[in-house]
């Protein structure tokens, strides 16, 4: 991306990759695009939210307290957005926290007496990203382009928009993740031709084909599975851990929340380690019984364990193979077995020169820059992942807008009645590819009332579908002989109503000061505890580097943090941490340098 290609926008619109496992944001500046770093100097924020008696923790802080609060630390909630409880039954048994059914068949999570929707949990992550981005840019950020899996249906896209509103963002565009990746790839390399984007993320899988031609980015085809991703790989490894545990110890692995959370974290770490090594051996301890064994797994064994899931992703190729030119990948495509299988299938290795974990956020930021009045050197044409239509007589699915139609899209069709003297017509709106609505997904309903009694077949009912640039569906219907009409922006049968979203926003404004205080207090407590524990690991080294008086001053500062870290005054905790940080910053660097020097001696 060259400097001349970027023009100052009239406002800031950032790009956000709201991920199942990690989330991140990016922005465009005069020299190109950059990822936002958080307070831990990472460009990613774990998509984890923990509810503790004191406050709500997000990101890295939530992962720290997860072992202490296993049944109120939530993760992978992106997979539940826009879903009904019936949709996610097979996922429930492996979760350490409680999932139940709310109003309109929504999925809700329980934290004591509090009930939280997946949208609210995603909003907590978006709030964290908003805060981090505003600190980096030094300006308020109110608008964002947010990415979703290409195979997210209308309900899931609407849920993503609701999460953004709850976090204080205006979601100016909801864009498919592989499309965002292709934007970053194409603009960075001036690539022309067809690109296969194989996107195996933490919770979802997409495969899309895009054509880059001049200044036009056109999505040709997309397929995928919103319930297949790295999480599923983790659970396969976790199941193997449990099986091996029982074989070697003679006892089953515990199934309480703490044990489920523990084995999931260990499985994920094993998966990550096997992406860079050929074998791993870890001590696995049952948190409840204390039983333990050494779990061993090789990269070859992992390939066998994951083979069925990997082949499920490859099966999508028949939708897109005719368009394939070259490929790029991200997320769980870091797993060597996945990359090897892609190379076998397409005869060339996947393109991974661009950081696969960052490319989606960067592409979204570039599009945000365009929408804000910046660069004008490309046109984006995305597609609809699944066909849209209505139920007709006999339970048939009448498709108005077909899968892979370019968006925005509009279609109109005429229908009539099959019963004499109908005074009302119910229109049930579905999404899917099957011929009968029982095999498709119900999105919403319109009821046309007050129609004068007429013979069957006489009413002339016009139904119009409109899909906007975000992939959000609006449906209108009019009975032309009587003039009766109805109009609806689809609110999923199992989604949050506009009234519920508004109330959540109003509640957040009313409690903003209280929530800010509680969040700061919780954050400072976690940081202070980390500082004290970190100091304990290098205390002896520091003592050898400082005079008695200097070491005494440091010890007093550490004791001050210990005294206040569990208190209720965030200002006292922050002041104590600042003093401890001031006294230990220089000596910490010295200890690190000394350790590196010692390591080099043994290396050479």
Automatic annotation (TrEMBL):
Keyword Secreted on entry: no
Keyword Membrane among record annotations: no
Keywords for this protein: ATP-binding, Nucleotide-binding
GO MF annotations, alphabetized: ATP binding; ATP-dependent protein folding chaperone
Listed Pfam families: HSP70 (PF00012)
PROSITE patterns documented for this protein: HSP70_1, HSP70_2
InterPro entries found in the cross-reference section: ATPase_NBD, Heat_shock_70_CS, HSP70_C_sf, HSP70_peptide-bd_sf, Hsp_70_fam
Sequence similarity: Belongs to the heat shock protein 70 family.
Name assigned to this protein: Molecular chaperone DnaK
Organism: Potamilus streckersoni
């Amino acid at each position: 991306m060259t400097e001349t290609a970027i023009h100052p926008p009239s406002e800031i619109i950032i790009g956000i990759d709201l991920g199942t496992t990690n989330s991140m944001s990016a922005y465009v500046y005069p020299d190109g695009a950059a990822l936002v770093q958080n307070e831990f100097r990472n460009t990613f924020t774990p998509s984890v939210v923990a509810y503790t008696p004191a406050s709500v923790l997000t990101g890295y802080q939530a992962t720290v307290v997860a072992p202490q609060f296993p049944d109120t630390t939530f993760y992978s909630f992106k997979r539940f957005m826009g879903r009904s409880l019936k949709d996610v039954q097979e996922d429930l048994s492996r979760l350490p926290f409680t999932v139940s059914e709310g109003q309109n068949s929504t999925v809700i999570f329980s934290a004591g007496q509090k009930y939280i929707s997946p949208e609210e949990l995603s909003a907590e992550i978006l709030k964290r990203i908003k805060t981090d981005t505003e600190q980096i840019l030094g300006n308020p950020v109110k608008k964002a382009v947010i990415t979703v899996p290409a195979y997210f249906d209308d309900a899931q896209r609407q849920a993503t928009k609701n999460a953004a509103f709850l976090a204080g963002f205006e979601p100016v565009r909801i864009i498919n993740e592989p499309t965002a990746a292709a934007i970053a790839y194409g603009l960075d390399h001036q690539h022309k031709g067809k690109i296969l984007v194989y996107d195996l993320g933490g919770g979802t899988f997409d495969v899309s084909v895009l054509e880059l031609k001049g200044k036009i980015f056109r999505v040709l085809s997309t397929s995928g599975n919103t319930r297949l991703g790295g999480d599923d790989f983790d659970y396969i490894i976790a199941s193997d851990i449990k099986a091996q545990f029982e074989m070697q110890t003679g006892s089953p692995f515990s199934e309480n929340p703490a044990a489920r959370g523990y084995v999931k974290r260990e499985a994920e770490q094993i998966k990550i380690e096997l992406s860079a090594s050929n074998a791993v051996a870890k001590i696995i301890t049952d948190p409840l019984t204390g039983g333990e064994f050494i779990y061993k797994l090789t990269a070859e064994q992992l390939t066998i364990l994951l083979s069925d899931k990997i082949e499920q992703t490859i099966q999508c190729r028949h939708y897109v193979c005719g368009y394939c030119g070259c490929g790029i990948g991200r997320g769980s495509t870091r797993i060597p077995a996945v990359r090897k299988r892609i190379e076998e299938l397409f005869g060339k290795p996947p393109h991974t020169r661009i950081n696969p974990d960052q490319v989606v956020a960067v592409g979204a930021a570039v599009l945000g820059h365009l929408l804000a009045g910046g660069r004008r050197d490309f046109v984006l044409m995305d597609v609809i992942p699944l066909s849209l239509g209505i139920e007709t007589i006999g339970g048939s699915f009448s498709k108005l807008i077909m899968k892979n139609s370019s968006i925005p899209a509009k279609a109109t069709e005429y229908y009539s009645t099959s019963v004499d003297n109908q005074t009302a017509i119910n229109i049930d709106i579905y999404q899917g590819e099957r011929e009968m609505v029982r095999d498709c997904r119900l999105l919403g309903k319109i009821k046309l009332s007050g129609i004068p009694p007429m013979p069957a077949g006489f009413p002339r009912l016009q139904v119009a579908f409109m899909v906007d640039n975000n992939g959000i569906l609006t449906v209108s219907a009019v009975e032309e002989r009587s003039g009766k009409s109805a109009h609806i922006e689809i609110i999923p049968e199992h989604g949050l109503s506009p009234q519920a979203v508004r109330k959540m926003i109003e509640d957040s404004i009313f409690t903003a000061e209280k929530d800010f205080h509680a969040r700061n207090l919780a954050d400072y407590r976690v940081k202070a505890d980390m500082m004290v524990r970190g100091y304990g690991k290098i205390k002896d080294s520091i003592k050898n580097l400082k005079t008695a008086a200097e070491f005494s001053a440091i010890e007093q500062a550490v004791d001050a943090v210990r005294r206040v870290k569990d208190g209720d005054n965030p200002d006292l905790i922050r002041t104590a941490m600042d003093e401890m940080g001031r006294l230990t910053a220089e000596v910490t660097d010295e200890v690190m340098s000394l350790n590196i020097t010692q390591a080099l001696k043994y290396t050479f």
